[in-house]
Design goal:
The protein is α+β, with helices and mostly antiparallel strands. It contains eleven helices and 20 strands. Strands 1, 2, 3, 10, 11, 12, 13, 19 and 20 form a nine-stranded mixed β-sheet that branches.
């Protein structure tokens, strides 16, 4: 029986969302500025699939089934959770349902930044106090390290490299944006976790005519994102996790009964899954599900990648230490050098999806991909001759305070984790521990983190959500573009860019 007041069924978005090019592998295109890869696979995933010896796509669910735990989503969050569950109890029947292939979503297409949260520590203190903030920051820092150790232990060559992350200012308006986080880390007893750098110290790590001062976060690494997610898939399969690819879950029912019933749709037809527990690990797609529509915004994020140019990167930029770099914009540029000497760079921009729909604007938006390419040219004019060979995009899940949220729906059997806001590689490793703990009912240092069971501000209903988000985000980008170009943004643009903070969201510039 459903508990009083608990709606029994929850639904996903209507079936019009796109998949990421199911099963198609296309040849690498090499043009001066390529269109985003849209429905074809992005280059990280192409490389990982080409190198793979593990089985090809796992067949979709062909008939009704019963499992102990059903995990919806075959990205990092879902696979880390499945992995932790098998670690706790190898006899558990765990099944992962993935509408595409594992890693077909952002876990196989992100920027490869594996970051701790020392650069968010002041916000964490505001939200959770000193102890809560420290617990979160230490847990994510541990994940940065653990991912590397895990790769080594399981023979997953995900190009893991731990060289820290640089935050750089590219305009006087952004100078010192790191100061409160640096001071807070120091006050909390972690002076080396996040250290301010002078202009010269930044230049010693990477030369750009745009870079000013900055800060260095020691707990930062980079990975080849698709090798990591496909490695996780391989290890989960070896541990007996049932993975059903090409299988979309469209509905959950009886979430307060002894088993939750899931409707799963694949090429093989529609089937019913009965599960003792369900883990919703759907990232931006969560925004389309009824209990979470006002809890997050699905937004597009785009990247480009250059041809290999290791010698030029070394001689012109002196960028040989392996640090990842972000600038201090809210519509951030994030970049790192890959093992084969390419620069991969992404840029905030993109557009929101109406009502949580993930449509073509998340993969085919040329203008947003061009922003990432323009960012590269602007930051490193010395690399003008280096060709951009790939462009792609994907959805990110923006939460009202830019931090993830974990919990369990009334009824106690459906658990969720989302809201990484485009910074999920390290936190999704932590999510695996949290979500496995919620399923198993353990009370430990992960399930006690203040990220679990918290409430956040809600976004307004549609159409105000998408319209407001578009207008305010456009204002932020215009303001930051103007500031970088040395122009003063109009008063209207400045006021609009500050509006999210005034409305109580931790999004956008605060000054
Ligand atoms: C372009 C880009 C760059 C990024 N760069 C970085 C970065 O450098 N560092 C960083 O930390 N983060 C980055 N991110 C964010 C990061 O990729 C995510 O936070 C992380 O991958 C989240 O993992 P996940 O498993 O929760 O989500 P996903 O990888 O999105 O996995 C969710 C899966 O659920 C599946 N799914 C959804 N609905 C259903 C359904 N109904 N039934 C079955 N399956 C379903 C989807 O197909 C998807 O594969 C970036 C994201 C993008 C798009």
């Amino acid at each position: 029986m459903p508990a009083p007041g608990v709606p029994s069924g929850i639904r996903g978005p209507p079936g019009s969302d796109i998949l990421y090019g199911a099963w198609r592998l296309d040849a690498v295109t090499s043009t001066v500025f390529p269109a985003p890869s849209g429905h074809t696979r992005n280059p990280w995933l192409r490389e990982a699939l080409a190198a793979e010896r593990s089985p090809g796509p796992m067949p979709g669910l062909a008939g009704d089934t019963t499992v102990d735990v059903a995990v919806i989503g075959g990205g990092y969050t879902g696979l880390w959770t499945a992995y932790r569950l098998t670690e706790h109890d190898p006899s558990l029947r765990v099944a992962v349902f993935e509408q595409d292939i594992c890693g077909g979503g952002p876990s196989g297409r992100n920027g490869g930044f594996v970051n701790a949260w020392w650069d968010e520590i002041a916000t964490l203190v505001e939200l959770f106090g000193d102890d809560g903030a420290l617990a979160c920051a230490r847990a994510v820092a541990a994940s940065v390290h653990d991912i590397g150790d895990w790769c080594e232990r399981h023979g997953v060559d995900a190009h893991y490299r731990r060289a820290g992350m640089l935050l750089v200012s590219t305009t006087p308006h952004h100078d010192g944006r790191w100061v409160s986080d640096v001071r807070t880390a120091e006050r909390l007893g972690h002076p080396d976790a996040y250290r301010a750098l002078t202009v010269e110290e930044v230049a010693a790590r990477c030369r750009s005519p745009r870079f000013r001062g900055g800060a260095h976060m020691a707990d930062g690494a980079t990975v080849h994102p698709a090798h990591l997610v496909r490695g996780l898939r391989r290890v989960c399969l070896e541990r007996g996790v049932a993975i059903h690819e090409g299988t979309r879950v469209t509905r959950l029912r009886d979430r307060s009964g002894p088993t939750v019933r899931l409707t799963a749709v694949s090429d093989a037809g529609t089937a019913e899954v009965r599960a003792g527990h369900v883990v919703m690990a759907m990232n931006a797609w969560t925004a389309g599900w009824s209990p979470f529509r006002s809890s997050l915004l699905a937004w597009g994020s785009y990247m480009v990648r250059t041809e290999p140019a290791p010698d030029l990167i070394a001689s012109e930029l002196g960028w040989t230490g392996g640090e990842s770099i972000i600038d201090a914009r809210f519509s951030v540029h994030y970049l790192h050098v890959t093992r084969d000497g390419r620069i991969a760079i992404g840029a905030g921009g993109g557009t929101p999806g109406f009502g949580g729909r993930i449509g073509r604007s998340f993969t085919d938006d040329r203008a947003s991909a061009a922003r990432a390419g323009d960012g590269l040219r602007w930051l490193f004019p010395a690399l003008d001759e280096v060709a951009i060979t790939d462009a792609w995009g994907g959805p990110i899940d923006i939460s009202p305070d830019h931090l993830p949220r974990f919990g369990t729906l009334p009824g106690g059997r459906v658990h969720f984790g989302f809201g990484y806001s485009g910074n999920g590689v390290a936190p999704s490793h932590l999510a695996g521990r949290i979500l496995a703990g919620l399923v198993l009912g353990t009370d430990d240092r992960w399930t006690r983190l203040p990220l679990v069971g918290r409430r956040t501000r809600r976004f307004p209903p549609e159409p105000f959500r998408v319209l407001g988000a578009r207008v305010l985000r456009a204002a932020m980008v215009r303001r930051e573009d103007a500031e970088e170009a040395g122009r003063r943004p109009s008063r209207l643009v400045r006021e609009l860019s500050r509006m999210p903070r005034r409305l109580g969201y931790r999004l956008g510039p605060s000054d």
